[in-house]
Amino acid sequence: MTFARLLAVLALPALLSACGGDEVDFAVPDTAERFSYDVVIENAPNAEVQLVAEETLDLYLRQDDGTASPAFLRRRADSDLPTLVSILQSQGYFLAEASRTVTGDGEDEPLIATLTLTPGEPFILSSQRFNLQDLTGTPPVLDPATLGAPINAPADAEEIILAEDAAVAALRRAGYAYAEYESRDVLGDPESNTATVTTTIRAGRPYRFGPITYVGLSRVSAEYLTTYVTWEQGVTFSASDLADFQQRLITTELFNAVTVEPPEDPPAQEALPITVTVDERLPRTFSTGLRYDTDLGATVTLGVEHRNLFGRNERASFDVSLSENESSAGIQFTIPQFRRDGQDLTIGTRYAQIDEEAYNGEVIEASIGIDRRINEEMRGGYGLLTERSVVVEDGANSEINLVGLPLFVTYDTTDEPLDATRGLRGRLELTPFAGTVNGAEVAFTRLDGRLATYIPLDDEGRTVLAGRVRLGSITGESATQVPVTRRLFAGGGGSVRGFARDSLGPLDSDGDARGGLSVVELGAELRYRFGETLGAVAFVEAGNVTDSELPDLSQPLRTAIGGGVRYYSPIGPVRADLAFPISPRAGEDAFQFYLAIGQAF
Question: Keywords in UniProt for this one (predicted)?
């Protein structure tokens, strides 16, 4: 139960007749001797009463300060009794009573404040009726049980309030834009131990969506923002549609702040005008990043993005990545809301100079693609990409020319992109390729799937069990006929920690991993966050690459274990991990160290 909800429950006036009082203590000098004490609650009808008492009673909140004497402790306990009764009444124990005893002197005998409860039987909510005032038109059916009222169950105040909130929300979704809670009457029958609740809501009249006015625009096109509207002018007003529109404008990243609201006072006409007030962000963003891997050394990234090039949130970005093994630069141009709602068109090109153990040379890529929102959790897309590369592999030159038709689908229910504590995240890519390698024709299909899940082990999400799996396959050509730039690799900070980047699987004549046709990666990580800014993790990861078209699970996986620390910064968790391969082979490092921003997966 949140603190705000707890205050609402304890303030339920008709259910809770005595809402406690302020403690009255005599001033005690700071130098006065303090006595520690314990608190015991007897006869609590359930664990929630104990929990809420610990969150609200002065006896608990000031326990670390101790008390000046048994007399002061008795006064403190007396001031808590009305609040304790209110807690019981909020759960339907309307006739509850509470008393206290204080034993011990704090010196020879321990000082104990004992709160004894006499809750009685809970009152059962027999009905909850919604009385709609100033009503015009036909409102939606407000069935209390469907809205969450505890009908034929103990008259729990929180559930009653939630049902009232749900009733108001249902009215606002049905056009009653100014519906609001007004009052509540509760009638209890001690003989039958039942209660009835009548909630008065000022409903008013229903409205329809009217014209939209934008305030604060200077560089952004109002016409473009209207493409995010999910309703037609003249349809029945819905507060949830309004909230969805506001959230969609926020996700454009064009604004520092967005509010979408009807007039403060109910208008006389049926068409409800909507005002969108925005504070535009500066259009340019500069970024820099630094990461470190034992095998790769430091990697520096620099980037600049320009949003809203022509007033419709067109985005152009340029980025550079520099490391000992790879230097690359890329340009990307994106047109959002391309021809339909939720669809983006992206055009990009990238040049890279690569000096990996498997190969070295120059790679040039260009692509164009469509990225479409399917629903709140899923996206999908398709496109066209080309590659022209000149590389050296195992002492032999290769001139690679490829065309690919990438298809992808993603699924994401996680709560945070950089530090998920719950949910599921997956991506499946399928790309048919055709082209030539040194003039010889090749054709193959590459399938790569990744799935990660995050399971909170406590209510606050401080302890999280995270797991991931990756499966990949290439069909159509043998491993050595597939261009090295498109083979499957495993190992490294974003793959299987504990091993050098792309080091797992079949080896070439120089003893370097050359990639293969199938890949398997597995990982599990236990994350624990202590305090506001620090955390620790322990993990185990395994994987391998083979020349079979399908992942060969009969071959043993290479495994590593490790741990790390996390610093939770305003831009995301900064991670430092140390991983150790189990049974390292000749030439492999005994450990790998990683430093980067964001969780490993």
Answer: Membrane, Signal, Transmembrane, Transmembrane beta strand
pLDDT for the residue numbered 271: 96
Closest CA to 346 of 369, 329, 322: 369
Q: Cα torsion for 133, 139, 141, 147, to the nearest 10°?
A: -60
Q: What are the DSSP calls for 405-426, one per residue?
A: --EEEEEE--S-SSS--SEEEE
Mean pLDDT on 149-171: 96
Q: How large is the average pLDDT for residues 543-553?
A: 91
Do the domains 124-202 and 208-280 sit in the same CATH topology, yes or no?
Answer: yes
pLDDT band at 32 (very low <50, low <70, confident <90, very high): low
**248: helix, strand or coil:** helix
**pTM of the shown model:** 0.77
Domains in the chain: boundaries: 3-118, 124-202, 208-280, 305-528+542-555
| Residue 407 burial (C-beta neighbours within 10 Å; 0-12, 13-18, 19+) | middle
Look at residue 240 and give its three-state secondary structure: helix
For the domain made up of 124-202, give the CATH fold.
Ubiquitin-like (UB roll) (3.10.20)
Q: Burial code of 283-310, b = ≥16 C-beta within 10 A, e = fewer? A: eeeeeeeebebbbbeebeeeeebebbee
For CA atoms 479, 483, 489, 492, give the dihedral sign: positive
Closest CA to 483 of 425, 441, 454, 423: 441
CATH superfamily name and code, 208-280: membrane protein fhac (3.10.20.310)
Q: CA torsion, points 350, 355, 356, 361, in degrees to nearest 10? A: 60
**Stretch 11-23: mean pLDDT, rounded?**
40
Would you say residue 5 has pLDDT above 60?
no
For domain 305-528+542-555, give the CATH number.
2.40.160.50
Rg (CA), the chain: 32
